[in-house]
Amino acid sequence: CCQLTRSRPAPQVAVDMEFAKNMYELHKKVSPSEIILGWYATGHDITEHSVLIHEYYSREAHNPIHLTVDTSLQNSRMSIKAYVSAPMGVPGKTMGVMFTPLTVKYVYYDTERIGVDLIMKTCFSPNRVIGLSSDLQQVGSASARIQDTLTMVLQYAEDVLSGKVAADNTVGRFLMDLINQVPKISPEDFETMLNSNINDLLMVTYLANLTQSQIALNEKLLSL
């Protein structure tokens, strides 16, 4: 993924294609197995310039994907949409291009989720500043979310059993698969395993703090 510079001298759009080619050649030296899948642009919708830029990438990739990222937050959220192009028109006459929307699924790593969750917390901060949470605070937040989710699931199950809510087979199968994934261990074994992991974590934390203190003490002795 690399950024291209484009200018908009109305009513035209200009993209530095030579820069795009050079960036792609440099990227292939680092990641030779990666290929061009499409291109992205900031905005909440397709523009008249999208067809021209998409035509260029159609020569670089087979059926490229056009991704739009709404940085203007039109609906109070950063919506992401994906499109592919399809020819339209009368054969033998003037032909055009139609962008067909695709289903977008968000896939992320756990480390990325932590960063995004931290950034989202700035929405509720008056000065838009938020500090990093400690490991213990993150564990507490995760435990609170799990507890809230379990409360919601239990309430749903009770409403279904009492007849307040109609049963949904899809939700039932999902909950059954989720329960089957939980390891069946006795409460005593679970408590022993949890205490053992906590002791290991405390030992690692103690050794890290001890090492940090030794380094700080050594620096002070050397500065005497």
TrEMBL record:
PANTHER family: EUKARYOTIC TRANSLATION INITIATION FACTOR 3 SUBUNIT F, EUKARYOTIC TRANSLATION INITIATION FACTOR 3 SUBUNIT F-RELATED. InterPro entries: eIF3f, EIF3F/CSN6-like_C, JAMM/MPN+_dom, MPN. This is EIF3F factor. GO terms for cellular component: eukaryotic translation initiation factor 3 complex, eIF3m. Residues 1-89 form the MPN domain. Keywords: Cytoplasm, Initiation factor, Protein biosynthesis. The keyword tRNA processing does not apply. The keyword Protein biosynthesis applies. GO terms for molecular function: metallopeptidase activity; translation initiation factor activity; translation initiation factor binding. Pfam families: JAB (PF01398), MitMem_reg (PF13012). Gene3D superfamilies: Cytidine Deaminase, domain 2.
